[in-house]
Amino acid sequence: MSRTYLGMPAFPRAAAESTRDGMLRANLRHATHTIRAKRAAAVAELEDWERLRAAGAAVKDRTLRHLDHYLLRLEENVTRAGGTVHWAADADEANRIVTDLVRATGEREVVKVKSMVTQETGLNAALERAGIRAYETDLAELIVQLGDDLPSHILVPAIHRGRREIRDIFRDRMADWGRPAPEGLTDRPADLAEAARLHLREKFLRCKVGISGANFMVAETGTLVVVESEGNGRMCLTLPETLISVVGIEKTVPTWRDLEIYLQLLPRSSTAERMNPYTSMWTGTTDEDGPRDFHLVLLDNGRTDTLADEVGRQALRCIRCSACLNVCPVYERAGGHAYGSPYPGPIGAILTPQLRGLASPLEESLPFASSLCGACYEVCPVAIDIPEVLVHLRERVVEGGPVTVGGNRTVIRPAKRHALERAAMRAAGWTFDHPAALRRAQRLAARTRHAHPRRLPGPGRAWSDTRELPEVPEESFRDWWARTRGGRP
Q1: Where is the composition biased (Basic residues) (predicted)?
Q2: Is residue 426 part of a domain?
Protein backbone atom coordinates (compact mmCIF):
# COMPACT_ATOMS: atom_id res chain seq x y z
CA MET A 1 0.00 0.00 0.00
CA SER A 2 1.31 3.46 -0.88
CA ARG A 3 2.50 5.43 2.11
CA THR A 4 0.87 8.75 2.99
CA TYR A 5 1.60 11.62 5.37
CA LEU A 6 -1.61 11.04 7.35
CA GLY A 7 -1.14 10.49 11.07
CA MET A 8 2.44 11.78 11.22
CA PRO A 9 3.53 13.32 14.55
CA ALA A 10 3.91 17.03 15.30
CA PHE A 11 7.11 18.68 14.09
CA PRO A 12 9.01 18.78 17.44
CA ARG A 13 8.61 15.04 17.94
CA ALA A 14 9.44 14.14 14.34
CA ALA A 15 12.42 16.51 14.26
CA ALA A 16 13.79 15.13 17.52
CA GLU A 17 13.96 11.75 15.82
CA SER A 18 15.34 12.87 12.44
CA THR A 19 18.09 15.09 13.86
CA ARG A 20 19.64 12.00 15.45
CA ASP A 21 20.15 10.43 12.01
CA GLY A 22 23.76 11.28 11.12
CA MET A 23 23.56 9.97 7.55
CA LEU A 24 20.41 11.97 6.85
CA ARG A 25 22.00 15.17 8.11
CA ALA A 26 25.16 14.55 6.07
CA ASN A 27 23.15 13.90 2.88
CA LEU A 28 21.05 17.03 3.41
CA ARG A 29 23.99 19.25 4.27
CA HIS A 30 25.96 18.21 1.18
CA ALA A 31 23.00 18.49 -1.20
CA THR A 32 21.52 21.76 0.04
CA HIS A 33 24.88 23.54 0.23
CA THR A 34 25.72 22.45 -3.31
CA ILE A 35 22.38 23.52 -4.75
CA ARG A 36 22.27 26.91 -3.05
CA ALA A 37 25.82 27.78 -4.11
CA LYS A 38 24.96 27.03 -7.74
CA ARG A 39 21.72 28.99 -7.46
CA ALA A 40 23.53 32.05 -6.09
CA ALA A 41 25.90 31.99 -9.08
CA ALA A 42 23.05 31.63 -11.58
CA VAL A 43 21.06 34.48 -10.04
CA ALA A 44 24.11 36.76 -9.94
CA GLU A 45 24.29 36.61 -13.73
CA LEU A 46 21.15 38.75 -14.07
CA GLU A 47 21.44 42.43 -13.28
CA ASP A 48 17.65 42.80 -13.23
CA TRP A 49 16.99 39.86 -10.87
CA GLU A 50 15.32 42.01 -8.22
CA ARG A 51 13.08 43.63 -10.84
CA LEU A 52 12.14 40.19 -12.16
CA ARG A 53 11.41 39.08 -8.61
CA ALA A 54 9.17 42.09 -8.00
CA ALA A 55 7.39 41.53 -11.31
CA GLY A 56 6.78 37.88 -10.44
CA ALA A 57 5.25 38.84 -7.10
CA ALA A 58 3.11 41.58 -8.67
CA VAL A 59 1.68 39.33 -11.39
CA LYS A 60 0.84 36.62 -8.86
CA ASP A 61 -0.86 39.11 -6.55
CA ARG A 62 -2.90 40.60 -9.38
CA THR A 63 -3.92 37.13 -10.54
CA LEU A 64 -4.95 36.04 -7.06
CA ARG A 65 -7.08 39.18 -6.61
CA HIS A 66 -8.99 38.32 -9.78
CA LEU A 67 -8.62 34.54 -9.68
CA ASP A 68 -12.31 33.87 -10.35
CA HIS A 69 -12.10 35.78 -13.63
CA TYR A 70 -8.92 34.06 -14.83
CA LEU A 71 -10.14 30.58 -13.89
CA LEU A 72 -13.31 31.01 -15.93
CA ARG A 73 -11.25 32.30 -18.84
CA LEU A 74 -8.93 29.30 -18.49
CA GLU A 75 -11.87 26.88 -18.49
CA GLU A 76 -13.34 28.53 -21.58
CA ASN A 77 -10.09 28.28 -23.54
CA VAL A 78 -9.26 24.71 -22.45
CA THR A 79 -12.74 23.62 -23.52
CA ARG A 80 -12.48 25.48 -26.83
CA ALA A 81 -9.21 23.65 -27.54
CA GLY A 82 -10.82 20.24 -27.04
CA GLY A 83 -10.10 19.57 -23.36
CA THR A 84 -12.54 18.84 -20.55
CA VAL A 85 -12.37 20.78 -17.26
CA HIS A 86 -13.40 19.29 -13.91
CA TRP A 87 -13.63 21.23 -10.63
CA ALA A 88 -12.59 19.53 -7.38
CA ALA A 89 -13.37 21.16 -4.04
CA ASP A 90 -11.08 18.87 -2.05
CA ALA A 91 -8.66 15.96 -2.29
CA ASP A 92 -11.34 13.26 -2.13
CA GLU A 93 -13.27 14.77 -5.02
CA ALA A 94 -10.11 15.14 -7.12
CA ASN A 95 -9.12 11.52 -6.48
CA ARG A 96 -12.63 10.33 -7.31
CA ILE A 97 -12.64 12.27 -10.61
CA VAL A 98 -9.25 10.91 -11.67
CA THR A 99 -10.11 7.34 -10.66
CA ASP A 100 -13.36 7.44 -12.64
CA LEU A 101 -11.58 8.87 -15.69
CA VAL A 102 -8.97 6.10 -15.64
CA ARG A 103 -11.63 3.43 -15.14
CA ALA A 104 -13.54 4.79 -18.13
CA THR A 105 -10.54 4.00 -20.34
CA GLY A 106 -10.49 0.37 -19.19
CA GLU A 107 -6.81 0.68 -18.25
CA ARG A 108 -5.27 -0.50 -15.00
CA GLU A 109 -1.88 1.22 -15.29
CA VAL A 110 -0.87 4.88 -15.56
CA VAL A 111 2.41 6.74 -15.89
CA LYS A 112 2.89 9.92 -13.88
CA VAL A 113 4.94 13.07 -14.18
CA LYS A 114 6.29 14.30 -10.86
CA SER A 115 3.35 16.11 -9.23
CA MET A 116 3.26 17.60 -5.75
CA VAL A 117 -0.46 18.23 -5.92
CA THR A 118 -1.18 14.52 -6.38
CA GLN A 119 1.04 13.89 -3.36
CA GLU A 120 -1.12 16.43 -1.54
CA THR A 121 -4.31 14.55 -2.46
CA GLY A 122 -2.86 11.06 -1.94
CA LEU A 123 -3.79 10.05 -5.49
CA ASN A 124 -1.49 7.04 -5.77
CA ALA A 125 -3.07 5.41 -2.73
CA ALA A 126 -6.57 6.18 -4.05
CA LEU A 127 -5.73 4.60 -7.42
CA GLU A 128 -4.23 1.58 -5.68
CA ARG A 129 -7.45 1.05 -3.75
CA ALA A 130 -9.28 1.06 -7.08
CA GLY A 131 -6.95 -1.58 -8.52
CA ILE A 132 -4.97 0.89 -10.66
CA ARG A 133 -1.19 0.98 -10.51
CA ALA A 134 0.54 4.35 -10.88
CA TYR A 135 4.17 4.42 -12.03
CA GLU A 136 6.26 7.43 -11.02
CA THR A 137 8.64 8.35 -13.84
CA ASP A 138 10.73 11.15 -12.34
CA LEU A 139 14.02 9.56 -11.23
CA ALA A 140 13.82 10.79 -7.64
CA GLU A 141 10.11 9.95 -7.38
CA LEU A 142 10.89 6.48 -8.74
CA ILE A 143 13.47 6.01 -5.97
CA VAL A 144 10.89 7.08 -3.40
CA GLN A 145 8.22 4.77 -4.82
CA LEU A 146 10.48 1.72 -5.08
CA GLY A 147 11.72 2.33 -1.54
CA ASP A 148 8.16 2.54 -0.14
CA ASP A 149 9.19 5.99 1.05
CA LEU A 150 7.86 9.55 1.03
CA PRO A 151 9.31 12.61 -0.74
CA SER A 152 11.36 14.91 1.48
CA HIS A 153 12.18 17.81 -0.85
CA ILE A 154 10.30 19.80 -3.48
CA LEU A 155 12.93 19.62 -6.21
CA VAL A 156 14.83 16.47 -5.18
CA PRO A 157 12.30 14.17 -3.46
CA ALA A 158 14.97 11.55 -2.66
CA ILE A 159 17.51 14.04 -1.29
CA HIS A 160 17.65 12.03 1.94
CA ARG A 161 19.02 8.96 0.11
CA GLY A 162 22.67 8.30 -0.70
CA ARG A 163 23.92 6.58 -3.85
CA ARG A 164 24.50 3.24 -2.13
CA GLU A 165 21.01 3.27 -0.69
CA ILE A 166 19.59 3.98 -4.16
CA ARG A 167 21.60 1.12 -5.66
CA ASP A 168 20.26 -1.27 -3.03
CA ILE A 169 16.67 -0.08 -3.60
CA PHE A 170 17.00 -0.65 -7.34
CA ARG A 171 18.51 -4.12 -6.82
CA ASP A 172 15.87 -5.19 -4.30
CA ARG A 173 12.67 -3.61 -5.65
CA MET A 174 12.79 -2.93 -9.39
CA ALA A 175 11.70 -6.47 -10.25
CA ASP A 176 8.53 -6.01 -8.17
CA TRP A 177 7.49 -3.08 -10.38
CA GLY A 178 8.66 -4.25 -13.81
CA ARG A 179 12.04 -4.73 -15.44
CA PRO A 180 14.66 -5.72 -12.82
CA ALA A 181 17.90 -3.85 -12.23
CA PRO A 182 20.87 -4.92 -14.39
CA GLU A 183 23.22 -7.52 -12.98
CA GLY A 184 26.18 -6.04 -11.12
CA LEU A 185 24.58 -2.60 -10.77
CA THR A 186 27.01 -0.11 -9.20
CA ASP A 187 26.32 3.13 -7.36
CA ARG A 188 27.76 5.30 -10.15
CA PRO A 189 25.19 7.98 -11.05
CA ALA A 190 25.38 7.09 -14.76
CA ASP A 191 24.68 3.42 -14.02
CA LEU A 192 21.77 4.25 -11.74
CA ALA A 193 20.27 6.58 -14.35
CA GLU A 194 20.64 3.93 -17.06
CA ALA A 195 18.92 1.34 -14.86
CA ALA A 196 16.02 3.73 -14.34
CA ARG A 197 15.84 4.52 -18.08
CA LEU A 198 15.61 0.85 -19.02
CA HIS A 199 13.05 0.20 -16.29
CA LEU A 200 10.82 3.09 -17.33
CA ARG A 201 11.06 2.83 -21.12
CA GLU A 202 8.71 -0.15 -21.34
CA LYS A 203 6.16 1.67 -19.19
CA PHE A 204 6.23 4.76 -21.40
CA LEU A 205 5.56 2.58 -24.45
CA ARG A 206 2.89 0.43 -22.82
CA CYS A 207 0.74 2.72 -20.68
CA LYS A 208 -2.14 4.48 -22.42
CA VAL A 209 -3.00 6.92 -19.62
CA GLY A 210 -0.74 9.67 -18.31
CA ILE A 211 -1.24 11.80 -15.19
CA SER A 212 0.50 15.11 -14.63
CA GLY A 213 0.43 18.30 -12.69
CA ALA A 214 1.45 21.63 -14.19
CA ASN A 215 3.81 24.40 -13.20
CA PHE A 216 1.66 27.04 -14.88
CA MET A 217 -1.67 27.41 -16.68
CA VAL A 218 -2.03 30.29 -19.16
CA ALA A 219 -5.59 31.63 -19.01
CA GLU A 220 -5.16 33.55 -22.29
CA THR A 221 -5.02 30.36 -24.39
CA GLY A 222 -5.80 27.46 -22.02
CA THR A 223 -2.20 26.25 -22.28
CA LEU A 224 -0.58 24.11 -19.57
CA VAL A 225 3.15 24.12 -18.91
CA VAL A 226 5.42 21.52 -17.31
CA VAL A 227 9.12 22.20 -16.78
CA GLU A 228 11.53 19.36 -15.96
CA SER A 229 15.08 18.19 -16.44
CA GLU A 230 14.96 14.51 -17.43
CA GLY A 231 12.58 14.14 -20.38
CA ASN A 232 10.24 11.81 -18.52
CA GLY A 233 7.61 14.53 -18.52
CA ARG A 234 7.81 14.88 -22.30
CA MET A 235 7.22 11.11 -22.62
CA CYS A 236 4.23 11.11 -20.25
CA LEU A 237 2.64 14.14 -21.88
CA THR A 238 2.90 13.00 -25.49
CA LEU A 239 2.76 9.18 -25.71
CA PRO A 240 -0.44 8.22 -23.79
CA GLU A 241 -3.83 8.30 -25.48
CA THR A 242 -5.41 9.99 -22.44
CA LEU A 243 -3.81 12.75 -20.37
CA ILE A 244 -5.22 13.83 -16.99
CA SER A 245 -3.70 16.91 -15.35
CA VAL A 246 -4.44 17.74 -11.71
CA VAL A 247 -3.50 21.34 -10.93
CA GLY A 248 -4.02 23.72 -8.02
CA ILE A 249 -6.09 26.77 -8.98
CA GLU A 250 -3.29 29.13 -7.91
CA LYS A 251 -1.05 27.95 -10.80
CA THR A 252 -2.94 30.25 -13.19
CA VAL A 253 -1.16 33.11 -14.97
CA PRO A 254 -3.08 35.55 -17.17
CA THR A 255 -0.97 35.74 -20.35
CA TRP A 256 2.04 34.37 -22.21
CA ARG A 257 3.87 37.58 -21.44
CA ASP A 258 3.41 36.89 -17.73
CA LEU A 259 4.64 33.32 -18.21
CA GLU A 260 7.91 34.69 -19.58
CA ILE A 261 8.74 36.10 -16.14
CA TYR A 262 8.42 32.76 -14.38
CA LEU A 263 10.34 30.83 -17.02
CA GLN A 264 13.30 33.02 -16.06
CA LEU A 265 12.73 32.93 -12.29
CA LEU A 266 12.02 29.23 -11.82
CA PRO A 267 15.03 27.47 -13.40
CA ARG A 268 17.62 29.74 -11.80
CA SER A 269 15.99 29.40 -8.37
CA SER A 270 15.43 25.66 -8.50
CA THR A 271 18.08 23.89 -10.59
CA ALA A 272 20.48 26.85 -11.04
CA GLU A 273 20.01 26.63 -14.82
CA ARG A 274 19.45 29.48 -17.25
CA MET A 275 16.49 27.61 -18.70
CA ASN A 276 14.85 24.26 -18.10
CA PRO A 277 16.12 21.42 -20.31
CA TYR A 278 12.51 20.39 -21.07
CA THR A 279 9.64 22.87 -21.18
CA SER A 280 6.48 21.13 -22.42
CA MET A 281 3.37 23.09 -23.36
CA TRP A 282 0.04 21.77 -24.58
CA THR A 283 -3.28 23.35 -25.46
CA GLY A 284 -6.19 20.91 -25.56
CA THR A 285 -5.92 18.14 -28.16
CA THR A 286 -5.09 17.80 -31.85
CA ASP A 287 -5.68 15.07 -34.41
CA GLU A 288 -2.05 15.01 -35.47
CA ASP A 289 -0.08 14.64 -32.24
CA GLY A 290 -0.29 13.86 -28.54
CA PRO A 291 -3.15 12.46 -26.45
CA ARG A 292 -6.61 12.17 -28.01
CA ASP A 293 -8.35 13.00 -24.72
CA PHE A 294 -7.28 15.69 -22.27
CA HIS A 295 -8.84 16.31 -18.85
CA LEU A 296 -7.92 19.17 -16.51
CA VAL A 297 -8.86 18.77 -12.84
CA LEU A 298 -8.74 22.15 -11.07
CA LEU A 299 -8.15 21.63 -7.35
CA ASP A 300 -9.15 23.96 -4.52
CA ASN A 301 -8.46 21.90 -1.36
CA GLY A 302 -8.10 24.87 1.00
CA ARG A 303 -6.77 27.39 -1.49
CA THR A 304 -9.89 29.56 -1.47
CA ASP A 305 -9.75 29.73 2.33
CA THR A 306 -6.07 30.67 2.14
CA LEU A 307 -6.92 33.39 -0.36
CA ALA A 308 -9.25 34.96 2.19
CA ASP A 309 -6.33 35.62 4.59
CA GLU A 310 -4.77 38.94 3.61
CA VAL A 311 -1.42 38.04 5.19
CA GLY A 312 -1.30 34.31 4.52
CA ARG A 313 -2.46 34.44 0.90
CA GLN A 314 1.03 35.35 -0.32
CA ALA A 315 1.92 31.67 0.17
CA LEU A 316 -0.14 31.02 -2.98
CA ARG A 317 2.47 32.88 -5.03
CA CYS A 318 4.80 29.89 -4.58
CA ILE A 319 6.18 28.43 -7.83
CA ARG A 320 7.68 25.37 -6.06
CA CYS A 321 11.33 26.19 -6.75
CA SER A 322 12.59 24.87 -3.36
CA ALA A 323 15.11 27.71 -2.88
CA CYS A 324 13.78 28.34 0.62
CA LEU A 325 14.48 24.72 1.65
CA ASN A 326 18.08 24.90 0.51
CA VAL A 327 18.94 27.86 2.75
CA CYS A 328 16.86 26.88 5.80
CA PRO A 329 18.93 25.78 8.84
CA VAL A 330 15.91 24.00 10.31
CA TYR A 331 15.22 21.97 7.18
CA GLU A 332 18.90 21.12 6.80
CA ARG A 333 18.93 19.51 10.25
CA ALA A 334 15.43 18.04 10.52
CA GLY A 335 14.83 16.90 6.93
CA GLY A 336 11.62 17.01 4.94
CA HIS A 337 9.71 14.14 6.52
CA ALA A 338 9.53 15.98 9.85
CA TYR A 339 7.06 18.43 8.29
CA GLY A 340 4.47 15.70 7.75
CA SER A 341 3.44 17.07 4.36
CA PRO A 342 4.39 16.98 0.66
CA TYR A 343 5.40 20.61 1.20
CA PRO A 344 8.42 20.61 3.53
CA GLY A 345 10.69 23.42 4.67
CA PRO A 346 9.75 27.08 5.16
CA ILE A 347 7.08 27.15 2.43
CA GLY A 348 5.50 24.02 3.89
CA ALA A 349 5.47 25.60 7.35
CA ILE A 350 3.13 28.31 6.04
CA LEU A 351 1.31 26.48 3.24
CA THR A 352 0.31 23.24 4.96
CA PRO A 353 -1.38 24.87 8.00
CA GLN A 354 -3.43 27.05 5.65
CA LEU A 355 -4.44 24.33 3.19
CA ARG A 356 -5.29 21.81 5.91
CA GLY A 357 -6.29 24.27 8.60
CA LEU A 358 -4.85 24.40 12.10
CA ALA A 359 -6.77 21.24 12.84
CA SER A 360 -4.23 19.00 14.59
CA PRO A 361 -1.02 19.21 16.64
CA LEU A 362 0.99 18.74 13.43
CA GLU A 363 -0.43 21.79 11.66
CA GLU A 364 -0.31 23.85 14.87
CA SER A 365 3.39 23.03 15.30
CA LEU A 366 4.56 23.93 11.78
CA PRO A 367 4.53 27.76 12.14
CA PHE A 368 7.02 27.29 15.00
CA ALA A 369 9.38 25.15 12.85
CA SER A 370 11.57 28.15 12.05
CA SER A 371 14.22 30.35 13.58
CA LEU A 372 12.80 33.39 11.70
CA CYS A 373 16.27 34.07 10.28
CA GLY A 374 14.75 35.42 7.07
CA ALA A 375 17.00 33.56 4.63
CA CYS A 376 13.92 32.05 2.96
CA TYR A 377 12.52 35.47 2.11
CA GLU A 378 15.84 36.64 0.69
CA VAL A 379 15.99 33.81 -1.87
CA CYS A 380 12.28 33.49 -2.74
CA PRO A 381 11.90 34.36 -6.45
CA VAL A 382 8.39 35.72 -5.89
CA ALA A 383 9.22 37.57 -2.64
CA ILE A 384 6.99 35.63 -0.26
CA ASP A 385 7.63 37.10 3.19
CA ILE A 386 7.65 33.71 4.90
CA PRO A 387 8.74 35.05 8.33
CA GLU A 388 5.80 37.48 8.31
CA VAL A 389 3.34 34.66 7.57
CA LEU A 390 4.95 32.41 10.20
CA VAL A 391 4.47 35.06 12.89
CA HIS A 392 0.91 35.64 11.68
CA LEU A 393 0.11 31.91 11.93
CA ARG A 394 1.77 31.68 15.35
CA GLU A 395 -0.56 34.39 16.53
CA ARG A 396 -3.55 32.44 15.22
CA VAL A 397 -2.36 29.31 17.04
CA VAL A 398 -1.80 31.14 20.32
CA GLU A 399 -5.01 33.16 20.24
CA GLY A 400 -7.24 30.37 18.91
CA GLY A 401 -10.75 31.09 17.64
CA PRO A 402 -13.03 30.06 14.76
CA VAL A 403 -11.70 29.38 11.26
CA THR A 404 -13.23 27.98 8.07
CA VAL A 405 -11.38 25.32 6.06
CA GLY A 406 -12.88 23.58 3.07
CA GLY A 407 -16.25 25.12 3.87
CA ASN A 408 -16.25 23.63 7.38
CA ARG A 409 -16.18 25.92 10.40
CA THR A 410 -14.00 24.80 13.29
CA VAL A 411 -12.45 26.30 16.39
CA ILE A 412 -8.73 26.40 17.05
CA ARG A 413 -7.88 25.66 20.65
CA PRO A 414 -5.80 28.45 22.20
CA ALA A 415 -2.28 27.23 22.82
CA LYS A 416 -1.72 26.09 26.38
CA ARG A 417 0.72 28.32 28.22
CA HIS A 418 2.17 27.82 31.67
CA ALA A 419 1.04 30.28 34.34
CA LEU A 420 4.64 31.45 34.83
CA GLU A 421 4.96 32.10 31.10
CA ARG A 422 1.81 34.20 31.08
CA ALA A 423 3.04 36.14 34.11
CA ALA A 424 6.45 36.70 32.48
CA MET A 425 4.86 37.97 29.28
CA ARG A 426 2.59 40.36 31.19
CA ALA A 427 5.55 41.66 33.19
CA ALA A 428 7.64 42.12 30.03
CA GLY A 429 4.76 43.93 28.31
CA TRP A 430 4.32 46.31 31.27
CA THR A 431 8.08 46.98 31.43
CA PHE A 432 8.36 47.82 27.73
CA ASP A 433 5.41 50.20 28.10
CA HIS A 434 7.22 52.15 30.86
CA PRO A 435 10.63 53.48 29.69
CA ALA A 436 11.78 54.47 33.16
CA ALA A 437 11.11 50.98 34.51
CA LEU A 438 12.91 49.49 31.49
CA ARG A 439 16.02 51.59 32.16
CA ARG A 440 16.07 50.56 35.83
CA ALA A 441 15.67 46.88 34.86
CA GLN A 442 18.52 47.11 32.36
CA ARG A 443 20.86 48.73 34.90
CA LEU A 444 19.95 46.15 37.54
CA ALA A 445 20.59 43.32 35.04
CA ALA A 446 24.00 44.82 34.18
CA ARG A 447 25.06 45.16 37.84
CA THR A 448 24.08 41.58 38.66
CA ARG A 449 25.37 40.06 35.42
CA HIS A 450 28.02 37.87 37.11
CA ALA A 451 25.37 36.22 39.29
CA HIS A 452 23.12 35.17 36.40
CA PRO A 453 22.65 31.38 36.01
CA ARG A 454 23.75 29.57 32.84
CA ARG A 455 20.52 27.56 32.80
CA LEU A 456 16.97 28.63 33.52
CA PRO A 457 15.06 26.93 36.33
CA GLY A 458 11.54 25.44 36.17
CA PRO A 459 9.62 25.68 32.90
CA GLY A 460 12.53 27.52 31.25
CA ARG A 461 14.83 24.53 31.65
CA ALA A 462 13.71 22.94 28.35
CA TRP A 463 14.62 26.12 26.50
CA SER A 464 18.06 26.56 28.04
CA ASP A 465 18.98 22.87 27.80
CA THR A 466 19.72 23.43 24.12
CA ARG A 467 20.80 27.09 24.19
CA GLU A 468 23.31 29.29 25.94
CA LEU A 469 21.72 32.22 27.74
CA PRO A 470 22.96 35.50 26.23
CA GLU A 471 25.45 37.45 28.29
CA VAL A 472 24.22 40.76 29.65
CA PRO A 473 26.52 43.69 28.65
CA GLU A 474 28.06 45.95 31.28
CA GLU A 475 25.82 48.81 30.22
CA SER A 476 22.73 49.21 28.06
CA PHE A 477 22.79 50.78 24.60
CA ARG A 478 20.95 53.85 25.92
CA ASP A 479 23.51 54.35 28.72
CA TRP A 480 26.39 53.88 26.26
CA TRP A 481 24.87 56.43 23.91
CA ALA A 482 24.30 58.96 26.70
CA ARG A 483 27.88 58.49 27.94
CA THR A 484 29.55 58.72 24.52
CA ARG A 485 27.22 61.07 22.61
CA GLY A 486 25.83 63.19 25.41
CA GLY A 487 22.11 62.57 24.87
CA ARG A 488 19.34 60.04 24.46
CA PRO A 489 19.28 57.89 21.28
Answers
A1: 446-455
A2: yes
